[in-house]
């Protein structure tokens, strides 16, 4: 079977699966309308302590705390009260930007925060942030300060996607990053573990014409992109 035929039958199979799932939930709803009405709903806004009502990212850490990334800083919520983490140009340990894009706790218990002006790691004592060569620094490793994705793979390796489509691999021993750039790509927004020790990378852009979107594959063994896959699955926005 050729590739087009394979993709066609895969698509038919997926459509059948989705149809069966849809019909199942239509006949066997998880909750009745009466049960939905009784579910508790609590609305949290700036009046309750949020730094901003524009929410970009929400993450629950292993201790149960909720971290909320907004356009005006980072909030930590314990179920009752909010703690605030904001950029202060006079404090070198403050977060690098108030526009929070991504939040992730790795398997080592370290909290990583992406912003529009670089990557941050919250220190274990929660007293400040370690900033990783943000945009504008003389020794900047990231060609752009926009951190569009933070991902940890099945081997506990941390990968960072940036606004220019580049991929970055964290080296824990040196506490530094190795960069793998790719030309004319949109933001690297999605990173997933793929087969045969590869990463599946997804690109997109808010503004039409800002690089190519689509899917590409990165080989973690050779640390190279699969060139044919990049070209065949990419498309202009």
Architecture overview:
- There is one protein chain.
- The protein is of the alpha+beta class.
- Among the domains are: 1-41; 47-153, Beta Barrel (Thrombin, subunit H).
- The chain has helices at 3-27, 33-38, 227-233; strands at residues 55-60, 66-70, 73-77, 82-85, 100-105, 111-115, 118-122, 129-132, 147-152, 158-162, 167-171, 176-180, 187-193, 198-204, 212-219, 224-225, 234-236.
- Strands 13, 14, 15, 16 and 17 form a five-stranded antiparallel beta sheet that branches. It has a four-stranded antiparallel beta sheet with strand order 1-2-3-4, with no helix packed on it.
- The two termini are 31 Å apart.
SSE blueprint and pairings:
Elements: H1 3-27, H2 33-38, E1 55-60, E2 66-70, E3 73-77, E4 82-85, E5 100-105, E6 111-115, E7 118-122, E8 129-132, E9 147-152, E10 158-162, E11 167-171, E12 176-180, E13 187-193, E14 198-204, E15 212-219, E16 224-225, H3 227-233, E17 234-236
Antiparallel strand pairs: 1-2, 2-3, 3-4, 5-6, 6-7, 7-8, 9-10, 10-11, 11-12, 13-14, 14-15, 15-16, 15-17
Uncertain segments are 1-26, 230-237
CATH topology heading of the domain at 47-153: Thrombin, subunit H
Number of helices: 3
> Rounded to an integer, what's the Rg over CA atoms?
21 Å
Strand content: 35-45%
Can you tell me the overall shape? Answer: globular
Q: Helical percent range? A: 10-25%
Listing every helix as H and every strand as E from the N terminus to the C terminus, the arrangement reads HHEEEEEEEEEEEEEEEEHE
| Mean pLDDT across every amino acid position | 81
Q: What is the quaternary state of this protein?
A: single chain
Number of strands: 17
Label the CATH architecture of the domain at 47-153: Beta Barrel
The profile of the biggest β sheet is: 5 strands, antiparallel
The top-level CATH class of the domain at 47-153 is: Mainly Beta
Q: Could you say which structural class the secondary elements and strand pairing correspond to?
A: alpha+beta
- Ends: how far apart? 31 Å
């Amino acid at each position: 079977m050729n590739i087009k035929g394979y993709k066609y039958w895969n698509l038919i199979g997926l459509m059948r699966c989705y149809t069966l799932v849809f019909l199942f939930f239509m006949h066997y709803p998880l909750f009745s309308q009466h049960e939905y009405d009784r579910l508790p709903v609590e609305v949290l806004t700036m009046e309750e302590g949020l730094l901003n009502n524009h929410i970009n990212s929400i993450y629950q850490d292993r201790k149960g705390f909720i971290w909320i990334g907004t356009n005006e800083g980072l909030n930590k919520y314990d179920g009752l009260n909010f703690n605030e983490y904001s950029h202060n140009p006079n404090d070198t340990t403050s977060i690098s930007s108030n526009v929070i894009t991504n939040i992730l706790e790795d398997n080592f218990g370290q909290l990583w925060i992406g912003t529009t002006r670089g990557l941050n790691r919250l220190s274990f004592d929660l007293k400040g942030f370690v900033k990783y060569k943000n945009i504008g620094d003389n020794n900047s490793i990231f060609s752009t300060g926009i951190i569009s994705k933070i991902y940890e793979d099945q081997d506990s390796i941390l990968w960072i996607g940036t606004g220019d489509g580049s991929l970055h691999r964290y080296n824990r021993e040196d506490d530094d990053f190795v960069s793998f750039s790719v030309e004319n790509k949109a933001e690297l927004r999605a990173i997933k573990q793929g087969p045969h020790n590869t990463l599946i990378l997804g690109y997109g852009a808010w503004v039409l014409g800002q690089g190519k979107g689509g899917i590409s594959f990165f080989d973690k063994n050779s640390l190279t992109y699969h060139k044919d896959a990049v070209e065949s699955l990419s498309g202009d926005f």
